[in-house]
Structure formats: C-alpha cells, structure tokens
Amino acid sequence: MSSVITYSTAERADVAGLLGAADRLTEDQQRALAQAREKSRTPQPDLDPRGVNEGLSVPDALEHLIAGHADSDAANGAGACYRALQCLIDVCSCDSEVLGVYSRPFTFFSALDDDLRRLGVGADLLPHARLFSGPPDEIPFPVPYPVDGRHIGMWPLDRAEPAADAYRTVLDRIDPEFSYDFLLLIGRLDVEHDAWKLSTQECDWYSQDTIFFSVTD
After folding, report:
1. In this structure, which of 22, 81, 140, 202 has its CB flanked by the most CB atoms within 10 Å?
2. Distances (CA, A) of 84 to 23, 57, 152
3. Largest alpha-carbon pair distance within the chain?
4. E strand or H helix at 60, and its extent?
C-alpha cells in the first residue's frame, strides 16, 4: 500500500492554541472548531461511515483534544487523535498540496538523509526529521504517536530556503534513485519560501510560519 504525503502552511500557534482551549475559545477559534467538527465527520476510506475504527471515533477524539487530553483506552486512540489533529491543522491552513506518493516514505526519507549526510548536508537541514517530527511541542499535553502509518510533520518556513539551497549544491552527486523526488522537494520548498517571503513583505497581518505535512496510507 502506498502512502501519500500532503502539505499546507499555517501558523503553528494557531494549531496549538486550539488544543485544550475548551470554553476559552475566541470567536475565530470557535469558527475554526466548527469547521474542524464538520471535517471530522467526513467518512474516510479506511473507517466505517461513523468515522470509527476499533473504538474511538474521530469526532470524539477531536472533542478530547479541545478538552485538553489525548488519552484513550481504545486500540486506535492515538490514530484517531492524529486524524482529529489533522482536521484542526486543515482548518488553520491554506489549501493542501501533494508532495508525492511513496511505497515506504519513512524508509525512503531515512535513506535520503543518510545520503545527504554523506554529502555534507547539515543535520538541521535533513528532511526526514521535518516530515516525521510530530505535532507542535506547544500543545499543552502529550499526544500519543500512532502506529497505523499516519504521521504529522512540520518544516519552519524560515528554514525552507536554506534547505533548498543546500540540496541544490549536492543535486549532481545524490544517489540517482533519489533524484526525481529530491528535485520535487527542492521545487516545493522554493515555492513555499517565495510565497511566504512575498506574503510577509506585503501583509503586516500575515503570520503563517510552518509547512505542515500529513503522511497517510
């Protein structure tokens, strides 16, 4: 089974600020939560029509996150919470784009990191840790890591250009098996950096600071 990696940009604090907010939500947050609740009820291919898989529904997991916890005895508790968290990310972000489709993305980007290290790319610029970083550290309670192949990653927008520049310097020496996807990644980082730079220059209210990645089976 292949995994799809999609991404969108959002303000990290906007996402983290919804979790545990409960009855302290602002009007804007209440609107975002209403959209997330609707999104959480959308049937997903690997779940039954109620959004249930082995015990915890995605809508219920969303309510757990807003209430300030992600603990559940359900076998799928961590996965349901990640799905619910993705709903919150989606309503805080711009339209999502597809980075690529991979048969084993965790393995692929681990191997890519190894090759980039061999070529002298710094540890803080390697892609694997960004794509599989997990949710924001600012979330005020632990969110368990799922084992169902669903992952969340973050790439600070101010680190997109340094990474793309470093990647270009080794592009002609990278293992050929990585070349196609590596070039796509460089292009995506360039586009997102340019959009971020233009938006921050032209709009004093613009505050998006993070590329959020979603890895789904």
Report:
1. 81
2. 18, 9, 12
3. 54
4. helix 58-67
